Amino acid sequence: MKKKKSLFKKILLVLLAVFVVMQFFRIDKTNPAVVKSNDFIAVTAPPADVEKILRTACYDCHSNETVYPWYSNVAPVSWMLEHHVEEGREHLNFSEWGSFPLKKQNHKLHECAEEVEEGEMPINSYTWTHGDASLSAAQKKTLADWFEAQMKEEEAEGDTLSGQ
Ligand code: HEC
Asked: Is 116 touching ligand 1 by the criterion CB < 6 Å?
């Protein structure tokens, strides 16, 4: 009986040591600079309710304006978080919107509408910790419809441009 207990203690100590060592591997939380004129919200000027959803449900991973929560200081959660932000920006960085060619913007708007409609974005693990990013059916519709409308508007603009 006594032996068992000390083994348990040893295992706990090893786990604790591993956890402590993990904390030395910190993530880089510096946000790249934001050029306002390239920012998606600045360029597209969405209505206030859409802007609010974008900022609370998308911008932490898809822009250079990430707000890092306290647990971004705690490994291994911090590593997962860093990975999401890196990958999110890589796929779609709203802070660089203005530098995308029209065709790319159009394609991304379509994907955004789709991801939101299907409930794929924002990703689940994010909404567990960010309650206000968990979108209601009405919010999903507002956002997806706006993405669609924006896409059509840009398409029409593109047609006028190429028709000149
Ligand atoms: C917690 C981080 C996170 C949040 C919040 C988030 N995304 Fe994502 N998003 C990702 C990651 C990571 C990927 C790439 C992997 C994947 O597709 O699952 C991605 C992929 C995408 C893609 C696919 C882009 C492409 O070209 O492949 C779109 C579109 C997208 N997200 C839109 C959104 C929208 C719109 C919101 C807000 C409603 C949002 N995301 C919220 C992390 C996030």
From this structure: yes
